[in-house]
TrEMBL record:
Transmembrane segments: none annotated. This is Glycosylase. InterPro entries: Glyco_hydro_beta-prop_sf (IPR023296), Mannoside_phosphorylase (IPR007184). Residues 12-33 are annotated as: Disordered. It comes from Paenibacillus borealis. GO terms for molecular function: glycosyltransferase activity. Pfam families: Glyco_hydro_130. Belongs to the glycosyl hydrolase 130 family.
Length: 340
């Protein structure tokens, strides 16, 4: 096994369970999943595909909440241990850059990423169709919604937690107006979080892994390691019974993250448990956040299950990076810079 370092902060109190005896998988589930169940708060039908971070000794999250209208919106949540969550009663009170109250028509699949001293919320918003919404906060009291970074149609905006070569870097998955066509992950850079360019192709769907044949999309914010950026993502395949969403893992080049260094041909987690196989949308496993402890290399992955629940799964940087290297398959021009 190659020695791998996780680069970043220590979160000694993050959720953790050792791999169960006899389990040989690269990622294993929390034993008491789902950590957020159905009807988790008054008037809330489901919470899933949500993002968490460590904050001042405890944990904060931005949650995809669906009430009885089933129209998704975002709410903050708080937890002492990262597992037992108290969700706020009202949506996040965004304001625009002029200070006026602003409520997205819908908001789903949030990511929450700290870059330097600012926290960014990235979600799927309505901008003449599905597009990427962004907001920033420094104190989780004032949330300023910013100009949309990209044109529609686009989803799965995932910000890197660090500027690379002086620029913000964001992954996204452009598409047409339908739910599935196009299906590859791209990245764009910005010096100021307003103007985005230097667009590059990062990863293609497909390859030997049929689980990722239809489309792929970035997941949690990439994790800095000695081997490059470790990113979990979702891969989708079509079946007679509809789409199935699994989780994959990839290592992107540290300085040129549009180059794929290693990518596992295998899924690293796929719907197998009742809360993943059965819900509002069956067979969906959709990762949106991780907590990482640099000292131990532990990683806790938060994922939406069946568009109904939140699950947690664990791995270590050592296990997962070595697994990706050992099961690597180059797909298309993944290894190129992605600039034609
Ligand atoms: C995707 C997104 C996700 C959802 C998934 C499965 O296109 O809308 O929010 O989990 O479909 O329904």
């Amino acid at each position: 096994m190659k020695e791998i370092q996780l680069i970043g902060a220590n979160i000694p109190n993050m959720p953790w369970q050792d791999r169960p005896e006899g389990n040989e998988n690269p990622v294993w589930r929390h034993s008491d999943n789902p950590v957020i169940k159905r009807n988790p708060a008054k008037g809330v039908a489901r919470i899933f595909n949500s993002a968490v971070i460590a904050y001042e000794g405890s944990f904060l999250g931005v949650f995809r909440v669906e009430d009885n209208t089933t129209r998704p919106h975002l709410r903050m949540g708080h937890s002492q241990d990262g597992l037992d969550w108290k969700i706020e009663d009202a949506p996040i009170p965004f304001i625009d850059e002029q200070g006026n109250s602003y409520m997205p028509r819908y908001a789903y699949d949030p990511r929450l990423v700290k870059v330097e001293d600012t926290y960014y919320i990235i979600w799927c918003t309505d901008f003449y169709g599905a597009a990427i919404g962004v907001a920033r906060t420094q104190d989780f009291k004032t949330f300023i919604s910013l100009e949309n970074p990209f044109l529609p149609f686009n989803r799965n905006g995932v910000l890197f937690p660090k500027k690379i070569n002086g620029n913000f870097v964001m992954l996204s998955r452009p598409s047409d107006s339908g739910h599935t066509p196009f299906g590859d992950v791209f990245l764009s850079e910005s010096p100021d979080f307003v103007y985005w360019g230097k667009h590059r192709h990062v990863m293609s769907r497909g390859g030997q892994g049929w689980w990722q044949s239809t489309k792929i999309g970035g997941g949690p914010a990439p994790i800095e390691t000695s081997e490059g950026w470790l990113m979990f993502y979702h891969g989708v395949t079509g079946t007679c019974n509809g789409l199935v969403y699994s989780m994959g893992a990839v290592i992107l080049d540290k300085d040129e993250p549009s180059r794929v260094k290693y990518r596992s041909r295998n899924f690293v987690l796929t719907p197998e448990e009742w809360y993943e196989e059965r819900g509002f949308v069956n067979n969906v496993l959709f990762p949106c956040a991780t907590l990482n402890d640099a000292e131990t290399g532990r990683i806790a992955i938060y994922y939406g299950a069946a568009d109904t629940y939140v699950g947690v799964a664990y791995t270590t940087v050592q296990e997962i990076v070595n697994y990706v290297i050992d099961t690597h398959e180059e797909v298309g021009d993944d290894a190129d810079l992605g600039k034609i």
